[in-house]
Design a protein that fits this description.
The protein is mostly beta strands. The protein has two helices and twelve strands, in the order H-E-E-E-E-E-E-E-H-E-E-E-E-E.
Length: about 200
């Protein structure tokens, strides 16, 4: 009976140890570079910088190189619109949830490269007043939007991660209703993460 209990204890320890290697928590932050694309040349947008920060979970399948990651990010996106020679700039806050499938491969003993892709959900947390100050009260802004991430980067010693991601907009960010012009937000992120 004692040997049986000892075997169970060893098995539980081994499973918990392998689970710790499969799932890793960390913190991520970095810079956003945002611009809007319009369905009309009447409006143009210039790139603006913002920031993002939040927790990140990384999962990996040993040996194969496949894995996944998900984050819960607070993001401050600064956007600019140019029309009739007038440049309007505003910062809007978002809750972003990117979920990516990853493939990693080692380059050296402590350095590996990864490629990642997957969907991202965005929710605009800015107040109606802030949105109206930028887009105008008669125009429509989507609180919830979807995008698709494509990116890659490097991992150092399994703790540090540096990468770049481009978010391709799937749904419209909003619409200038009077002119029937819709627009989408494109984002490039430079990311830095630390895993515990």
């Amino acid at each position: 009976m004692k040997k049986f209990l000892l075997l169970i204890a060893i098995a539980v320890y081994a499973m918990s140890s392998s689970a710790q290697k499969m799932f890793t928590w960390g913190l991520e932050g970095g810079m956003n570079f945002n611009s809007l694309s319009f369905s009309s040349e009447m409006f143009k947008s210039t790139n603006r910088a913002g920031f993002f920060v939040g927790p990140k979970l990384k999962a990996r399948i040993p040996i194969v190189g496949l894995g996944a990651d998900a984050s819960l990010l607070y993001s401050m996106n600064s956007v600019a619109v140019v029309t009739s020679g007038v440049d309007k700039t505003k910062s809007l806050s978002y809750l972003e949830i990117p979920m990516n499938v990853r493939y990693s491969f080692g380059l050296f003993k402590v350095l590996s490269m990864y490629l990642a892709t997957g969907p991202q959900f965005n929710y605009c947390m800015s107040s109606d007043k802030t949105i109206a100050e930028f887009y105008g009260s008669t125009n429509y802004i989507s609180r919830s939007t979807w995008g698709w991430n494509v990116g890659g980067g490097f991992e150092i010693a399994s703790h540090f991660q540096v990468g770049v991601t481009y978010t391709i907009p799937i749904s419209n960010t909003g619409e200038f209703t009077a002119k029937d012009i819709d627009f989408k937000q494109k984002t490039v992120k430079v990311r830095l993460a630390y895993f515990f």
